[in-house]
Design brief:
The protein is α+β, with helices and mostly antiparallel strands. It contains 15 helices and 20 strands. It starts with a strand and ends with a strand.
């Protein structure tokens, strides 16, 4: 089945089929990617439309000016005519007034008034406001207003202007009292023309209105077509400048084109919003992965092991901080490099190379020496493990682990030496016991020899018992299986009791034992039996390894910081070389004088372990030929020393 492949280059995107790539090579299309650039286009308006609009507006303006000037002229003529006719009618005699009322407007004078084009009404009112003569003009649709005259207006001649109730028509009314009657008032109303309301003005507007409407209709049609395109052009320009996508207000134009554009923008916003949501999710995932990466690296950096990951080509893709500690002198920038490029150890580089060429079969561990600060040589162990994909099982590279095995090898060597020395220490007394046991089996053995043999066997058995007890105590302490039974102990009484027990063993010698133990020492909380063993070991050594006529000093003192218990002797002393090893198991000095004394080399080891169990310290000070002093110190900051004196 043919597979399609897609490649993206600087010119665009091209898609080809691997099976027919050569056949379509000449027919392949390149689609260049360009930034969209919008050119603003000005709206092309036909040339006759502005002229038509100007002509319509000019005609309308002329009609308005003409109407305004005509209204002004008519108002002036009406004013003059109204004043003269009012004055003439106000001076009629009673007989003429009676005839006017009786004829009800049929007189020639009133008929002439009625023919005036702006005449509205003529009426005569009595002093009680009763209308005795009413004459309406041709503008009968306007009607006679019901606005009465005031008292001052009823006794004087004048005019007033007002509008109808609907405020659509202006009226000017002339009034005057009829002088011969004394109780009647006449009122004559005329239409007050304006520039928009006068007889004949509607015809002017009917002429200009279609032309204006036609012009505006043409402009409206053009703008309804071109204005949306212009607004779209401006919007595209702002979008091209990097502004945010926004819809266009279409409430006025109601253009379908803008509606489609707004729908497009809305869909684009939804797509952008979905992309932003996905980007936010990806950013959160990236931060979580980054946090997991940092946490994993922190965990790997906290390991006491050197960890490195190699890719399939053998280059380092990751290493923790401890890894470079096993390669002193190596460059800190090893990521992306193979071992042969940076490793100062040729053995490790060869080991990695052999692991890659073994075809999946990894070599055993490699041990090599490396130097740390101070040129201390240490031993490291290197191992490799293949990293495989969980789904396919394909190899993803190699995992290298390096660990310091110096202490492990030292402990192993010490364990072997310990077993050899323990066997040797047991072999000698067993050999003596066997030899004397065989002597006791003889029938003709003299009584003195028999007693001596029994005493020798007893001493050797006692020596083996001490050796076994010391070994058991040391093993329990080192394994953490020993139980410490701490009790409150009066320090002075406890030390005096130990002194009294040990002085008896020194009475048969020429040694001088000096005690310097104050009575006012603070109480301590210790395991009496274990601490007694450690102090007895120090006193026994001071007596055993002393010279003839020497001195043993057993002292204690309390300072502001600690309680100090010291045992001094005047023996041959301990060399500086021996001082570095006297607390090691089975260690004994090479000095011939020391070798003459019996011992297993376990007493000081046990003593130091017991003191350390009580959070104390054991130190030694010695000078060859002058003697030695061992000091046990219990710090008052620990819980061993209780506050207060006893």
């Amino acid at each position: 089945m043919n597979k399609a492949s897609a490649t993206i280059d600087d010119n665009g995107l091209s898609v080809s089929n691997s099976a027919s790539d050569e056949r379509r090579k000449g027919d392949r299309r390149q689609w260049p990617t360009r930034r969209l650039r919008h050119r603003r286009r000005r709206i092309q308006i036909p040339a006759f439309l502005p002229l038509l609009l100007i002509a319509a507006l000019s005609l309308t303006l002329l009609l308005v000016v003409y109407s305004w000037q005509s209204a002004k002229t008519i108002n002036a003529e009406t004013q003059l005519y109204g004043e003269s006719i009012t004055k003439a009618l106000a001076n009629v005699s009673n007989e003429a007034l009676t005839d006017l009322i009786a004829e009800q407007g049929q007189s020639p004078m009133l008929q002439n008034l009625k023919q005036h084009p702006h005449f509205l009404y003529f009426l005569v009112e009595s002093k009680f406001g009763e209308r005795q003569l009413v004459l309406e003009g041709h503008q009968s649709g306007i009607g006679i207003p019901s606005l009465p005259l005031s008292a001052s207006q009823r006794v004087s001649q004048g005019n007033r202007a007002f509008t109808t109730l609907k405020k659509t028509v202006g009226i000017v009314e002339f009034y005057a009292p009829i002088k011969t009657s004394g109780s009647h008032v006449l009122r004559i109303g005329f239409l007050k023309p304006t520039f928009y309301w006068q007889p004949g003005a509607q015809y002017y507007f009917l002429i200009s209105l279609p032309l204006v409407l036609l012009t505006f209709a043409a402009f409206s049609s053009i703008f309804s077509t071109y204005l949306p395109m212009h607004r779209l052009g401006q919007h595209f320009s702002s979008m091209n400048e990097g502004k945010e996508f926004e819809t266009i207000d279409n409430s006025q134009t109601k253009s379908p084109l803008i509606d489609d554009f707004n729908a497009l923008i809305a869909n684009a916003k939804n797509i952008v919003r979905e992309i932003e949501v996905k980007q936010d999710a990806l950013e959160i995932d990236r931060k979580v992965l980054y946090f997991d990466k940092l946490r994993t690296e922190a965990v790997l950096d906290a390991l006491p092991l050197g960890v490195a990951v190699l890719d399939v080509a053998g280059s380092v893709t990751y290493c923790n901080k401890q890894f470079l500690h096993f390669f002193p002198g190596a460059s800190p920038n090893i990521v992306g490099k193979s071992f042969s490029e940076w490793s100062p150890s040729l053995a490790v580089a060869a080991y990695v190379q052999s692991g890659r060429k073994s075809g999946g079969v990894k070599p055993g561990e490699l041990q090599y020496e490396y130097a740390q600060r101070g040129n201390h040589t240490k031993v490291a162990s290197v191992s490799m493990q293949t990293v495989q994909a969980a789904d396919s099982g394909n190899s993803l590279g190699e995992l290298m682990i390096i660990q310091d095995v110096t202490s492990t090898l030292h402990n192993k060597r010490m364990s072997e030496e310990f077993a050899i020395k323990a066997a040797h220490e047991l072999k000698t007394p067993l050999h003596v016991v066997k030899m004397y046991s065989e002597m006791l089996m003889e029938d003709d053995l003299e009584p003195d020899v028999r007693v001596e043999s029994l005493n020798t066997i007893y001493d050797e058995v006692d020596r083996m018992a001490d050796l076994v007890n010391n070994l058991l105590n040391i093993a329990k302490i080192e394994m953490g299986n020993i139980t410490i039974d701490k009790t409150r102990v009066k320090t002075s009484e406890f030390l005096n009791d130990i002194y009294d027990s040990m002085i008896r063993s020194a009475n048969n010698s020429t040694l001088t034992v000096v005690k310097d133990i104050p009575e006012s020492l603070s109480t301590i909380v210790v395991d009496k039996d274990l601490l007694r063993i450690s102090i007895n070991n120090l006193l026994s050594n001071a007596i055993k390894y002393n010279r003839e006529g020497g001195e043993v000093r057993f002292a204690a003192e309390e300072t502001d910081d600690a309680i100090l218990i010291s045992i001094s002797d005047s023996g041959p002393g301990i060399s500086e070389e021996d001082q570095r090893h006297i607390f090691d198991k089975f260690y004994r000095s090479e000095d011939a004088e020391i070798r003459k004394k019996s011992g297993h080399g376990l007493g000081l080891t046990l003593t130091r372990n017991i003191v350390q169990l009580h959070h104390g310290s054991l130190t030694v000070e010695s000078t060859l030929g002058e003697g030695s002093r061992f000091t046990i110190a219990f710090n008052k900051k620990s819980n061993i020393v209780e506050r207060g004196r006893v």
